[in-house]
Design a protein that fits this description.
The protein is an alpha/beta fold. Helices cover 28% and strands 32% of the residues. The chain has three domains: 89 residues, D-Maltodextrin-Binding Protein, domain 2 (3-Layer(aba) Sandwich), CATH 3.40.190.10; 77 residues, Periplasmic binding protein-like II (D-Maltodextrin-Binding Protein, domain 2, 3-Layer(aba) Sandwich); 78 residues, 2-Layer Sandwich (Alpha-Beta Plaits). Helix 8 packs antiparallel against helix 9.
Length: 281
Amino acid sequence: MSTPATTSVGYPGRDGAHSAAACDRLFPRNVELVPLPSFHAVVEATAERAVSFGVLPIESSLSGPVAETHDLLYGSPLAITAETVLPIRHCLVGVAEVPLEEVRVVRSHPVALDQCRLLLAAMPWATAIAAPTTADAAAQVAAHADESEAAIASERAAALHGLTVIAGDVGDHPEAYTRFVSVANYTRLDVNDKPWRTAFSFVTDHRPGALHRAIEVFARHEIDLLQLVSRPIPQTPWRYRFDAVLAGHPLDPVVREALHDLREQTRHLRLFGSYPAEDQE
């Protein structure tokens, strides 16, 4: 498939999704935003160059890594090109402002459901149902027009679909953030004076001390390992890979040497891209 003539950005869901707001932050200039039905569809469209970039959530400050994004990127040729962090404010929305006792179904994305455990625990009579995105959950509730159904979504999604906010700020913690990344079919090698991040994945031998020997190289080179996530390898039951992010650029001599040493200690090493760290002050 040929490269799009204009810059297009695919994201999961529809207008009102948190990923749509992340697109506005990552691509503030005029681009074509392309809503897609799922995380998988975003990765597929980007890999096939139907869109120039994809945008996906990759980490929550409350529930940790977004496993689906990690696994999709691992199985694709894509690389991370940029990141942004958004504050997330969850609301319980429905077609009418009804008491919580009358809500029998709560729809949302699994990560949002996980971030609102206290609300769901206080509503044991309600069934939580997963949706592709929070915006899709709001659209489903609006389409069903059933007062016993509600969605956990943003105020923007509620307004777009003509829904009422039944309860605001229903997240377990008042300050919740989600990290979003843009992905593309190339790896950035440009360098500027900003702090950079490098994402990578590795698999160790299945023997005592293998993980310690792998990550010890970062301590030895005084490199900050910002994230370390274990994910199962489906083809090999009870074996795991490790997805990680370090502070630095692979062209930095110390980072290059550390990655070389890491390769010596692992069975498989793969870089997932380098990108400037967002200033989160």
